Each structure stands twice: as structure tokens, then as C-alpha cells.
Amino acid sequence: MGLLPSFAFGNHNYGEALSKSFLFYEAQRSGYLPHDQRVQWRGNSGLMDGKASGVDLVGGYYDAGDNVKFGLPMAFTVTMMSWSIIEYGRQMGESGELSNAMDAVKWGADYLLKAHPEPDVLYGEVGDGNTDHYCWQRPEDMTTSRAAYRIDPSRPGSDLAGETAAAMAAASIVFRNSNPAYARELLTHAYQLFEFADKYRGKYDSSITVAQKYYRSVSGYADELLWAAAWLYKASNKQYYLNYLGENGDALGGTGWSMTEFGWDVKYAGVQTLAAKFLMQGNAGTHAPVFEKYQEKAENFMCACLGKGNQNIHKSPGGLIFRQRWNNMQFVTSASFLATVYSDYLASARKTLKCSSGSVLPSELLLFAKSQVDYLLGDNPRATSYMVGYGNNYPRQVHHRGSSIVSVKVDPTFVSCRGGYATWFSRKANDPNLLTGAIVGGPDAYDNFADQRDNYEQTEPATYNNAPLIGVLARLHGGQNEYSQLLPVAIPQPKPDAEQKLTPDPAFDIAIEQRETSSWVHKGKTYYRYSAIVTNKSAKTLKNLKLSVSQLYGSLWGLTKYGDSYVFPAWCNSLLAGKNLEFVYIHSVNSPAVVSVSSYTLV
Fold it and tell me: What residues form the catalytic site here (predicted)?
């Protein structure tokens, strides 16, 4: 039996929830809206942003229900959307949402590029929470301050610069194939920002003090330096960044902190999850002892989510993990994402999770993530969906300026700063504009929730609530498609300096082993799941592999179809000596497909 057995996914339409998530990002757009804007009740806004400072800061996202552009949560949103695509872009493509996902990343990344006009200058906020929150206006009507705030060598902000470097590095991977020039631009900015963050150290909210009341950097900047290094290694494959993780893991807390939360402020659990992945891929090298400590802390987080660790995460009576009253759902979606990817990493490495209560199958982590998503979508004591527009019973009085005030396209009459509070905020009626896809703050520790506009702790949405969830939704939606369970780990490989073509001798160079891992009956028909391991037995790097697969009566995952052949998947272009790649297929015949090598190159 395989480590990740098949199990039925529930009745929720994860594909619909995924589609709606991207509509929420369109509703949060600032700047000039594009011609293909689908959320039609929004208009252009923030068109003078940055002008007073002599820089173009038009664009980007409003973070939540207000009209401020906060750099730290916006960058984290871009990082997590990118990570979702990197892991589960194929499933997004199958559901027709990959282009919308990439558009959402690019809208944020374009703004981050504008916000970084010089190597050691980064704009971290436009607008100011105090004046903004005094007013209740549509973004199209804003009369509040649009001052821009920056960090530089005299006013550093390593956490903000580090997170922005991570976002650009992650986004560069997303666009590596479809827009290589844009990907290179993002990576260049990421290199500069990391150097800026590391060289001029300090907390960003000591420099941009107006952010303290809203996005205070409680954890400091050490976690963001490691987080940025991890993403730069993943994006560039440069040993410098792997060494940084290995040499600074102890000093910067990455190997010491066992976390029970992951979010826009505290990144340690994310760093530890990525470092564990690098270790399981065999990339840690001489730093393996340090990376084993990262992995131990990553597994502590996973065990805490499952309630099987030494320090577990609190759960409500209905089973939702609970961290804090104000926007608790951000921690639900981010923990669910880490559990989902770690489940797949473990399954790919054929390993189990080691908790204090014993060994845990990877499938338990995926089931945990599914339980959290199902709760969010309505499987909870209140039978309430906490995604606006999904299901029949969802929040109708969202704490969100644009959603709660009549669209400027329906009634262009100016809504004044305080007039908005008097006329629209205090209305005990449904929002005139549906904020489709928004994930609100959610219920309290006892599963209670009040759908009231002034209940901002529970009814305000945020961009960083959805960003990790899109990956989990794509994974669960893919899981509904013909029992897909296993995704190979992405393996970035260095580009060789020269290639040498050899006369193929597949019997000597390549081994292919197949085995049946599970079977089940669905609607009276028996399905069989097979795992196939392709191993490079040569002493060189295997590239340009083409496989022929015949007598296959079903679907195959983990390879890319290329004409009549199958080639390496998009996330892996070679196999080092001694390494292997797994692909899986499910079909209705109790015998393996015929897999043979058509051609390959050794380098």
C-alpha cells in the first residue's frame, strides 16, 4: 500500500471556490483597471499614488476592507499566491484558472517592482491607516492621505525588504517559462532587495511608524531574511542562498523556534517547510545537520496542527484551529497550505511524519487541511460559509468599504469621508456589491459568528487569507479528478556547461520499476493505481528523456505529454546520477502499462 492511499473527497465544489477566490483579488485592485476586469462594480482608484514623492506607485492591492496599500502583507500575498501556483499550477490549469492565478500574481508583482525604484529604496506603504479608517469611502472617492512611506539605508526595514525579495523570487518561478524577461527582472530585484535587507538591518515599522498600529512586525526580521534566502535558492539554484540558510539557521532562529502559527508576520514555519523539502531532495549537502533541525521544527508544526505534538494548536469545538479573535481565518488557510504541501513532499520522498505520539501517514496531513477547508466552506456548527458568494449561507454585511457602498457605476454621487459612515456603514442591510470569493475573519473560539459590518474582527476579509487557500483548493480539486493523489517534488537543477550526446543504452543507464499501490471500486468498476520509478543508473546527468507508454487505460500524473511520448514534467528538466523520478497512473486494468525508453541524453 502506498503512503498516500486514495480517499474520497467531500461534496464541496473546490473548483468553484478556487474560481471565486480570484474574483476577490480583482475586487481588491488599485489603479487603472484592465479591459478584462470581471468585477464590474469597481472603478479606477488611487491614480495619483506616489506622485507627491516623485515615483509611480499606481496599482497593487488594497489589503483588506480599507483603502491603504500595506507593503508587508501585500508582498506576503504575492509570495503565497506564487507558492500555490508553483506547487499546484497544473491543477489550476486543468480547472481553467491558471491564467487568472498568474494575473493575480502579476498585478501584485508589477506594483512591487514600481515600489523598488533603486536597489536600496523600497516603498512600503501608500495611504495611512489613521486617516483612512476615519473615513468610510469607496476607493474611487478617496479624499484621505495618499502619502508614500519608504525604507532606505538610513531607515532600514529588513522584514519588509526580505518579504518583498521572497515575493519577487517566488513570482519569478511562476513566470520563468511564459515570460522569461519578466522573470529575470523580478529575480534581479529580488537579489538587490535581499542584499539591502541583509546589509542594513532593522525592523520596518521602526522606519515606517504609521504601520505599527496595523501591521506591526512582532517577530522582527530574522525570519524574513531566512525566508527570502530560501526563495532565492529555489528561484536561482545559487549555492550562496543555500549556504545562507545553513550558516544562519541557528543565529536567526530558523532551527530553534517551534511554531504554532504561520502568516504575514511570522515566517519560520514556512522557512522550515521549504528547508525540509531541500533536505528531502538531497540538496542540503554539508549543511544536512542544520537542515535536519529545520525539518524537525517543520514537523513539530505539522504535529501541532494534527494535535499529535508536544505543543498543539487550539481547536474550536467544531474543529477549526483557533489562534486569535481578529481574523483567525488567516492562520487556518496558511496552516492548511503548509500541511498540504508537506503531505505531498513526504509522499514523494516515501516518508512518514514523526510526531511525539508516533508515526503519521502523509494522508493525515492532507485530511487535516481538507477538514479546515470544509469547515471554512460550510461544514461547521453554524452551517455558514466563510467565503462570500460560496454556498447559500455566507456573510452579507462584510466590513469592506467598496462592497458596502453602492457602486460608483450605479450611482456616481460622491460619498464623503464621514457621510459614508452615516449612510452606508451603519446600514443593517446586505452589501450592495457582492465581494465574491472574499474569506472573512471567521468565527470565534467557540464557533460563534456575528454577520455585522462593524464586527471587523470577524467580517473583514484580507488578501492574505485567500493566497494560501488557492493552493489547497487546487490540490483538493485535483484530488477529485480521477483519484490523483501524488505530486512529485519540484527539483530545480543547475544548467550544465556542456552536453555530450551518447548512443543510448537504456538497459544500462535507466531502470524503470512499476508496482501496484492500491485499488478500489467506484460505481461498480475496479480501478488500480500504479507507481512507476524511473532511476538514472548512469554516472552522468540524464536529460531530454522521452518515454513511450502503451496499454494505458486511464490517466497519468507526473510526466508531460509530448506528441506520442512522455517527457520530464515542467518542474524537473533532468535527473542527477542515482536520482529517480516517480510518476503514477490509474487505470481499469489489473496489469501495468508498458513503459519503455525512446530516447535520452547524458550530460
Answer: 399, 451, 460
